[in-house]
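Lab meeting minutes (informal)
Scribe: AK
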Amino acid sequence: MSARRARKGPGGALRETGNALGRRRFFCILSPTLIICGKHVGVRLCAVSVDLDEIPNYTQIHGLGTLEGPGATAVYDVAVGRLRTMARDAGLPLTLFAVASDLRRASAAQALRDAYAEGHELSNHSLDHRYELTRLTRHEIAQQIGGGADLIAAATGVRPTGFRAPGYTITDTVFDVLADLGVAYDSSVFPCPAYFAAKTAAIGLIALRGRTSRSVVDTPAVLTAPTRPYRAGSPYWNRASAKRRGAGVLELPIQVTRGARLPFIGTTVTMWGPAVARSLARMCVGEPLVNLELHGIDVLDASDGLEALRPYQRDVNVTHESKLESLHAVYTLLRNSGYAFVTMAEAAEAFARTA
């Protein structure tokens, strides 16, 4: 490795740096599990990602008016800093899924540049976070995905290789566009019955109260999708044919527990304290990849300018200190269970040949 400069990143990862595109390629991890020459050999991986949906997205979900004041930009102004501190203290890398239009604000773009310099991955959460992405024309979908990647690259100097759709809602057309654009991986499929039921009920309840939610429900067929990394076939909730191994976009599904497929995401991990968080984590141990997806709001609370969301967004009533304690409990349990922490791009590289 003498021809390359290298440094340790979060989680003890030794990362190559300094190529023309500013990208970092996974090389090795110093952990109880074995990783050789950039290849994961019999290792359990955990990727922690964060969707940086700014607070106006939540007012849209609940059919509320525009949020004014500093709370409107609390994700980039407050949460990103807390997430970086959390990751540094826990010794792990994050994958930050950015809504590209938010990066038109100079301070938001700088926050991501700083995060990337610390070893975190930057990924694409679309141009404008349009909840109705799957209802747009193919051309509009391409603009949201390709345009998002272009703007993230322009704002940060880093071109993202992955994608996550707003609201975990995706279609075959979106997968076709991802393939056309050469996206390395997607992480949008959420095969979780409990989440699907709760989301459907919440949208209906909002309508009964005379408001309109921007949120969109996926097809129930998504509940039959694989829970482990797979190459998306057609329809996307099916695995690509074995005869076409390597074909299809690599999908890294949002994490559910083993058996009951309970949601193992930021909301469920941070809502009820460390004991519940650890219980959910134990129900995921044994999976080859634990894909823990958070949102920026998962490290915020009402005191961060979100008082107006208290009646609608229950998790803002939990202090951010309590949320961080729950997350730390999860990281500790998974690390003690033999998991190595990697970025989403590194996880995709590990599963690309076998999915």
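Next up, CB showed the second protein from the same session:
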Amino acid sequence: MNYSENYHHLKDIFYQEGLNKKYDTIEIHERNFESLSQMILPGAEDYFCTQHQLKIKSEFAFNSVAGTIKDNVHIKDIDVTENHKFKYRIFKPAGVQKAKKVTLLIHGFNEKNWDKYLPWAKSICETTQSAVILFPLAFHMQRAPKYWSDKRKMYELSQSRNQKFPNVVASTLSNVAISMRLHAMPQRFMWSGLQAYYDVIQLLEECKSGQNEHIDKDFGINIPVEELNFDYPYSHENPFPLNRSAQNKINDAFKNVFQKVGDFYNSAD
């Protein structure tokens, strides 16, 4: 199957109910995750440092009045349950009990669904025979309240924000939730990034301790970096658009990119 066919088939089954699914050469599994670093987030009255056995009282305002509008997205960070407990998914070669290699696939800033990444995960899984973990960063993807992705409500909120702050540039329904939360409390960028950092460490430690039944505790993981450009209209947010007029070029570029991924992993064996 080509890129667009895989995209549509994977999208159909990815969101179906069920912990274990099979498609073509891969299996898709779900696992629960509870972020142990949730307690570093702002919003609590008191904090406790387990390392130093100290109780610390919060002495700063949860958010400033700047950027706030009544009845909007300003939930206390520490109270966002979707960010605390969630499910992440694993793509694994079909028939492999425990994968000995792992690729951690992380999305971009302010992304709300995994759709475009599904063919990526499948191709990496096939070419490297590694498990591919689709892991959401703090307050993104399935770790954000569905309200923040409701197009009608976010459009209304964006309109209200534009009226209250007419000098704001490029406020849209796509970015209004995250923009308003950062406007009201810029420190959120640092705190959510720190939580995501600790969450990835927790994820890898859980795998290394044998708690993940799909991954061998002695697995290997590598993180290469290479810059690529393509000969068709695209964005870095979506390098493989579903563009029929450039479909052949997009198919070739997709194969080339993930062949590089496969070559890298296979050369490390």
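CB comment: The mean pLDDT is 85.
No objections, moving on.
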